[in-house]
Amino acid sequence: MNAPRPPKIGLALGSGSARGWAHIGIIQGLQDIGVRPDVVAGTSVGALVGAVYVSGQLEAFTDWVLKLTPRDVFGLMDLSFSGGMVKGRRLFGFFEEKHLNPNIEDIEQRYVSVATEMSSGREIWITRGPIISAARASCAIPGLFSPVKHDERWMLDGGLVNPVPVSACRAMGADVVIAVNLNAQLVGRHLSRAGQEEVVREASTRQERNLWQRMIASLSSSDDDHPSVFDVVAASVNILQDRLTRSRMAGDPPEITLLPVLSDFALMDFHRAKECIDEGRRLVQENAATLRAWAGLPRADAVAPKDAKDVKDSEAPRLERDEKT
């Protein structure tokens, strides 16, 4: 009698701006417990992290994001007053220079980037062509990043139509879907004041300091009567994606939902990668038994070593205590 086929695992990486670095920790955690997704679907920052992962570049990418400072983040933002405050060409041009950009169809794992067609509002699944271009098409947060032209169509952020792309995983053949929802907590702080001060402090010339101060003041100044531009944009995106996520996941629930606890993260806190990554890994470890069970893997504590030599020295005291109980 043939052994049953193991389930195909899908990983749905949701939108969430800077909180998206938690996806890195979740992927690393899944690798630690032996769970390898067969299908990866990503929206917005989830599309970017997913693209880096399936193209085999997660380690180098992680090293880079862990070194980001507030000034680095702002330095990668090419300001624009056409379609969005940031064009995104400098940021994604950097990715294309520093990372491989294979075609999606040449990658072993199945990958799909979810974007929104601006002219029709349709949900677009990109499953062919250069993978960084596909990820970029999903990363156009309204009012922040400019739309991008993909296959002669203007694309907006995929979070407008499918913030956690469980349905895309199912359509690509996943039997079991692990969903990462970054939108469960509305963010009350949108542009970190500490980050702003560091950017201004590190500016090398008086002219540069004045430029940063003017830009930051125009984007983040607010009071009880007048919310800032960032407050309006970030709150609108968060509310929309939170409500849409609840609706979409109620209609097509995943087998497992992971909810990183990142309530104090602002929209542009990309320099706080370590906190996000640590939270992602913690979440996987907390749910390791459930994740391994859905993946058809044995419980970690059910696999006994063949002999005493297989037991690490650090594990011996724990085994001795277990024998006495």
From TrEMBL:
It comes from the Bacteria. The keyword Lipid metabolism applies. Residues 304-325 have a biased composition (Basic and acidic residues). It holds the Pfam family Patatin. PROSITE patterns: PNPLA. The keyword Lipid metabolism applies. InterPro entries: Acyl_Trfase/lysoPLipase, NTE, PNPLA_dom. A motif (DGA/G) lies at residues 157-159. One of its GO terms (biological process) is lipid catabolic process. GO terms for molecular function: hydrolase activity. This is NTE family protein. The lineage of its organism: Bacteria, Pseudomonadati, Pseudomonadota, Gammaproteobacteria, Nevskiales.
